[in-house]
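Re: folding output
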Amino acid sequence: MSDARAKVLSAARRATDTRELFSRTSAELRRLMPFDSAVWAATDPETGLVTTPMLVENLGSGERCAGYWESELLEENVLPFRDLARAAVPAAGLREATGDLPARSARFSRLLEGQGVDDELRAVLRIGDRPWGVVSLFRMRGGVRFGPAESALLAGLSGPLAAQVRRFARPSSSGGTADAPTPGLVLFDPSGEPTSINEEARKHLARLPEGPSIPTELGLRLPIWVVATVLQARAIARGRERAGGARVRIRTLDDRWLTCHASCLDGPAGRPGPVALVIEPTAAADRAVLIAEAYGLTPRELEITHLVTRGLPTTEIAATLFISPHTVRDHLKAVFGKAEVSSRGELVARLFGEHYRPRVSAPPGRSGGGAHAQAAPSFGPFSSSTISASTTSSDPGA
């Protein structure tokens, strides 16, 4: 088992982004424990909802993919991802979990069985209680069911693969264009069919990476990540408990972040009304939390980092948080190590400055023409005016 795990992780370490990570891991796993098809997806660590990228292997069209997530979020199923995210072991096989009676799961009886699937092995890629990805492996009729050893192998990969997904979620140094502040709106009828959309939403959707999607009568295809957010809102309206709400953050093609959040509206006489989906640039405070998640900062470390960006010295940070200066210094050393920096100024630049810095246009005569460089935007507590001289210190105890 240790040799098999080492082989998979060796292949995974050669990946340069999350989609390649999924592809390499899937290929190596297939050699060690054969399967016929698979779904790999990154998830928002706060809500557990699927986000970009998603890799679907040998499972047909995006429409079927939509049905899979509809069942996951709206029906009673065996081994839902939300339960695996909290389970002692984050991976399990469907036949093994049901005593060889997979039809006990609506997902199997309504969808998988009709597609010729005989068994499903699924897992949540997690660090602590934070889910960074999900995976489902499928065997078709005629094959053997997934066994305990295969479940154990996939469970043992959960933490290491989640760590890589988290690392790839870090901001790149290339920056990106400044976000337009205007939110987009898409309305869905009570059954989940999109009925209207504004131009801002079309623009935001055009910035999303390619992936599984469904056609609509609005003249565009909606990504599964967006559809899943609407399904989550419908699940909440039906009284199904959903930690984190109907909300997902998605990385765009130009390396920015968008937030999709949905809610069910009330109709006449208490009947279900439409579902409103808002798509907008991720707020500054939320981006800060997302970036901190990507670097593996604890809630306390993030608190201290916020105070560092305000220019507070160690003694004031300690007084603000009612902890000792020695504890502050210990936390800062841990933060420096995770962010791979050696000073407070580098910390602010690494976690926030690089992600928020707008792209500078090329000089005349080169790609980009003669456009002027954009002014640096203000992002609330991370605006340049709040980063005082004290953040340049190389001493975490300053």
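--- second protein (sequence, then structure) ---
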Amino acid sequence: MSQNKSIYGGQAVIEGVMFAGKHVNVTAVRRKNDEIIFLEVPRTTQRWVQALKKIPLVRGVVGIVESSAKGSQHLNFSMEAYAEDEAKEEESKQPEAVKAEAKAEEPGKEKSGFSLSMIVGVAVAGVLSFIFGKLIFTAVPAALEELLFQGLFESKVGHNLLEGLIKIVLLLTYLYLMSMTPIIKRLFQYHGAEHKVISAYEAGEELTVKNVQKFSRLHYRCGSSFIIFTVIVGVVIYSLPIFTWDTIWERIYIRILLLPVVLGISYEVLRWTNALRDMPVLRYLGYPGLWLQLLTTKEPKDDQVAVSIASFNRMRELDQQMAKG
């Protein structure tokens, strides 16, 4: 990747893609009538948050929480659009008499929009769901390993490795079952489209559907890679001699207490593997994350890539406008 190119990230949403720029976050969503709509949210970060994001180990946790909050707004936007399309399709199948009755019952109904309270509420819900999910994913494998294999090893390292294996099995099972549902499969296709666009941009290619489709759906800087690194880093940290336990509750307590440390170090490892991805031997450090992406991404169709390109181009356009002031 060229040194003067900006680093961009994004996420898949329902029937679309969000890209985060320096000054604005943009989501493009394709409606069922093939219209592409956009949600454009300027990035406003407090100075103290910006300061924290410059501190190694701390910046990872801050960035994750911030991404969870902002990403939830864009996911909610896509879900509203999807639900509205589904409702219209369902309504079109109803007899005219039923449609007229429904309209008469809701004379004051207005089109839903994004109020400030709604945006704040969605952001808070996103952060809380992320924290709750991480706590569950941290506590359950530790508890299972303790209950099933309590006397198998004398060494804590053996138990920690088994705990990590249980985490990976649970993670892969969950992702596989999720990918079987049609809506999540399409979400994973948009995830692949997001990666392809970023890779094409980083390679200096013109962003056309044909060009973008030539690139891999896997990317070193993906959040899926981050997930697998948290498992690996967790095993290493929990195995340090200073972190011992005697009961299952002590074990879970230590895991939860060390969660910010694991997240912070995993984020740095992700940045490190991305920086080394062009080096012949060290590039293999990022392979576990790429392997996980085989589950969390799917090959996108041309129309899905087109939506991803539209989102990226709009984000870049607004970023340039806002940079000029």
